[in-house]
Specification:
The chain is an all-alpha fold. Helices cover 81% and strands 0% of the residues. The protein folds into 2 domains: 37 residues; 81 residues, no CATH class. The protein contains 6 helices and no strands.
Length: 121
Amino acid sequence: MGMTAVLFFLVPEKITGIFTNIPEVRALAARCLKIGALEQVSIAYSMTLAGALRGAGDTRGPFQVTLITLWLVRIPLIFLVVFVFRSSLEFVWVTTVVQYFIEALLMGRKFKKGDWKKIMI
């Protein structure tokens, strides 16, 4: 996903050009991909740790972290961005960067805490 981030950041216009030839859409999508590049490593980290926790028998932990970051971070922030601040689409993408970063931090904390080591499978 790190390589995907590099591609999203360095050649977003080429990627968006595969899907549309409308200049305005390509430009907006390219800006969103550049922002999306910033979340790729956090997503990979979070997914890897969530998978490790689930594999160790802790299925509730990753679910709780995802539920918390989705309902208490991402959705409220998107609501604020769209309905209160009336910001552009790029800011919706920024909220996903924030959500995945917080999710990665919480997933890392849950993993390092080590409660999963005590679970009997």
